[in-house]
Amino acid sequence: MTRRTLAVVSAGLGRPSSTRLLADQLAAATRDELDRRGAAVELHPIELREHAHDVVNHLLTGFPSPALREVLDAVAGADGLIAVTPIFNASYNGLFKSFFDVVDSDALAGRPVLIGATGGTARHSLALEHAVRPMFAYLRALVVPTAVFAAPEDWAGEGADAALRARIRRAAGELADQVDRRPAAIGPADPFALTTSFEDLLAGRDPA
Amino acid sequence: MQFGVFTVGDVTVDPTTGRLPSEHERIKAMVAIALKAEEVGLDVFATGEHHNPPFVPSSPTTMLGHIAARTERLLLSTSTTLITTNDPVKIAEDYAMLQHLADGRVDLMMGRGNTGPVYPWFGQDIRNGIPLAIENYDLLHRLWREDVVDWKGRFRTALQSFTATPRPLDGVPPFVWHGSIRSPEIAEQAAYYGDGFFANHIFWPKEHTQRMVGLYRQRFAHYGHGTPEQAIVGLGGQVFMRRNSQDAVREFRPYFDNAPVYGHGPSLEEFTAQTPLTVGSPQQVIDRTLGFREYVGDYQRQLFLMDHAGLPLKTVLEQLDLLGEEVVPVLRKEFDALRPAHVPEAPTHASLVAARDAADLTGAEGGR
Questions:
Q1: How far is B345 from B74, CA to CA, in rounded Å?
Q2: What gap in Å lies between CA A65 and CA B273, rounded to an integer?
Q3: Which of B131, B182, B262 is the closest to A191 by Cβ?
Q4: How many domains does chain B have?
Q5: Do B184 and A66 count as a contact with CB atoms less than 8 A apart?
Q6: Strand duo A91-92 + A80-88: pairing
Q7: Cis omega (within 30 of 0) for bond into B80
Q8: Cβ–Cβ of B266/A57 closer than 8 Å?
Q9: Nearest Cβ partner of A63 from B204, B219, B263?
Q10: Which of A96, B28, B99, B117 could cysteine-pair with A11, CB 3.0–4.6 Å?
Q11: What is the domain partition of chain A in residue ranges?
Q12: Is A45 within 8 Å of A74 (Cβ atoms)?
């Protein structure tokens, strides 16, 4: 049985948080999909609120605290990432952006990512497409086609729950497909590994 | 083991008084700090090099030449010399001249510099930081060792039949350290040439320094310069002391909280837990510093950052008294007792001349 890890990042600020609720549902659905494909899935839920001060400190000092280092390694070393943010001012919130600003710029290259968001009304839903998706495109992540937005009305009312559930299932299936077709992740890259010989450096041969 | 101070040369408001020293005051204060370092028995004074405010030391050899004339035994060094944006030909000339004037009391630490605009101001591109450091240093290394150099590279105009003057004192170039916070390529570069490696050690957790120094030691042995334990390692450090540790914390906190680099970020308590910063009594500084060798091995040079973040000169000189009178004598004795016989001291001009003469003698005998 293949072992798979999913990092589940939630940038919700409230407690309890509907953003975290959506993240948990996306994670559970993806785990079930991978389960069906014969993988053993380990979830790493990451509530950014708990690391907010460390994220700011990292921005200011240039290095992470030990606790934030573990979180960054969990994100960089996962087979797949679920990233969910509340929409503020027509975009991801500042905590979400600040966190991904301290993730190593190569850490998510080629990594399957499922994006989700919550917001006060459904009018915010396209922020996923014009703000969140481009950020992960810049990081060269592989963002699955279905992004999941949950508005307040999705959590209640006639038939609404069913519509959100269907979107979650579709998105989770897409993420599971992408994770499943890849070899298992080997963990975060070693920042101290030499990737070139000194003779090459001296000869001006660029390894990249 | 060598002990000393290194300075960034920042002109920063004293947050407790709101007073901003003039550039002139700061430059004179740096000189006073160097003279004090010799007076209290420290071995090394190293100055940074910067080309933007609020920093004053843009011309290190001018300052170090002046200090050389006013000191007897202090080793003069840099932290760092910008190998990326300086012309390696000018570095070869300036530091050979300084070496003559200081009768050999000179070494240098190469660094890339991390201020983006400095690169274009000097006609370079920060994205070429590593290739510039590699190519420029290789040229510098040759200019000090070959009387006539023919050279062609990517970043500077070619040289035909060029001789850098003056030639190094006694034909022996100044010892070179390579400083880097996080680039394994620079640890590799130091190892390749058998030069020293200096870990900044101030802004990053110790695990980081441990990995960088470990890599350098392993590659130093790989290139045949000795065993990993014989590689030449220097560390930075940052301390603030008062006899009573609570006084140290109380007095240093406003400077820490407003410091240019990490101010307004982590708390003093978080930063002292996560980095080698020590704020407390001289005994606490001794204990913490002795602990460094447990993760980098026996090392050759310890430099302390003492004069930044707007600390007034009077306070810095008091710190140097404590460092020279109470801390360094104990560290010197303890480190020396712990260091095995096969681990060398940091090279000096005298030891490099002796090593060269011994090698010449062996070579001459072998030829007979």
A1: 16
A2: 10
A3: B182
A4: 1
A5: no
A6: antiparallel
A7: yes
A8: yes
A9: B204
A10: A96
A11: 2-202
A12: no
CA distances from B223 to B29, B143, B192 (A): 42, 22, 6
Alpha-carbon gap, residue B366 to B368, rounded angstroms: 6
**Is residue B61 over pLDDT 90?**
yes
Q: From the list A61, A66, A191, which residue is nearest B203 (CB)?
A: A61
pLDDT tens per residue, range A106-131? 999 999 999 999 999 999 999 999 99
Look up the ipTM and state it: 0.83
Question: Which of B127, B151, B183, B188 to probe by mutation at the A interface, max A CB count within 10 Å?
Answer: B188
- pTM for the model stands at 0.92
Supply B57's token pair. 């030391």
Residue B156 to residues B56, B164, B325, B356, Cα–Cα distance (Å): 27, 15, 47, 31
User: Is it the case that residue B151 has pLDDT exceeding 50?
Assistant: yes
Domain of B191, CATH number, reads 3.20.20.30
What confidence tens digit (pLDDT) does each residue in B25-52 have?
A: 999 999 999 999 999 999 999 999 999 9
Does residue A183 sit at the B interface (CB-CB below 8 Å)?
Answer: no
Residue A208's pLDDT band, with cuts at 50, 70 and 90, is very low
Structural tokens at position A110: 């080629």
* Residue tagged 């009594």 (tokens): B281
- B338 touching chain A per CB within 8 A: no
- Whole-angstrom Cα distance, residue B118 to residue B10? 16
DSSP code at position B230? G
- Please, are residues A6 and A41 in contact by the beta-carbon 8 Å criterion? yes
CB B47 within 8 A of CB B79: yes
Query: What is the C-alpha separation between A86 and A19, in angstroms, rounded?
Result: 6
| Distance in angstroms (rounded) separating the CA atoms of residues B20 and A173 | 61
Of A108, A8, A201, A174, the C-alpha closest to B192 is A201
Question: What's the pLDDT at B251?
Answer: 98
pLDDT tens figures, A1-15: 789 999 999 999 998
Q: Are the C-beta atoms of B203 and B234 separated by less than 8 Å? A: no
pLDDT at residue B365 greater than cutoff 80? no
Q: Give residue B152's domain range.
A: 2-367
B304, two tokens: 């302390």
**Interatomic CA distance for residues B219 and A206, integer angstroms:** 20
Q: Determine the pLDDT at residue A155.
A: 83
pLDDT tier at A158 (50, 70, 90 boundaries)? low
Contact A164, A154 (CB under 8 A): yes
The helix/strand/coil state of B34 is: helix
Residue type, B279: V
Pure H helices in chain B: 23-39, 60-69, 88-101, 118-121, 129-143, 184-193, 206-222, 245-257, 268-274, 282-296, 313-322, 328-338, 349-367
Instruction: Indicate the CATH number of A2-202 among 3.40.50.360, 3.10.129.10, 1.10.357.10, 3.30.420.280.
Output: 3.40.50.360
In this structure, of B114-128, B228-242, B319-333, the range with the lowest mean pLDDT score is B114-128
